[in-house]
Amino acid sequence: MERADAKVMHMEPVGPAEDGAWKKPWVAYHITNRPGMKGRVWSRIGTAWLNRDGSISLLLEAIPIDGKVNIREPIKDVRRAAQPGALAVAAEQTADPAPRKDA
User: Along the chain (103 residues), what's the average pLDDT of each consecutive run of 10 residues?
Assistant: First the structure.
């Protein structure tokens, strides 16, 4: 079912454009919901590109069991700020404070 606010993206052939910019291939993802986890897990499983004759080539490195593949433009490499994991937080909470020097 399509969302009303979904934006339609058209694939363009891979390779250099008229302006000299290189068009990147699209990425194939398998998106799953995992019990007990917030959000979805996105696994990159392949690449897709539009051929000169208008056909689409899909190169998969893995095949999802449920058969669902989502093809999208490459997502910008957005990294979250590094946050300490659960073990680091627990270790920090139980660590003894540095001994004081009495004057």
Answer: 55 63 80 83 88 86 90 70 74 69 61
Residue 89 belongs to some domain of the structure: no
**Number of domains present in the structure of the chain:** 1
* Cα torsion 9, 2, 46, 48: sign: negative
User: Taking the CA atoms of the chain, what radius of gyration do you get in angstroms?
Assistant: 23
pLDDT confidence of residue 56? 85
CA distance 30 to 68: 6
| Residues 69/84, Cβ–Cβ less than 8 Å | no
Domain that holds residue 18: 7-75
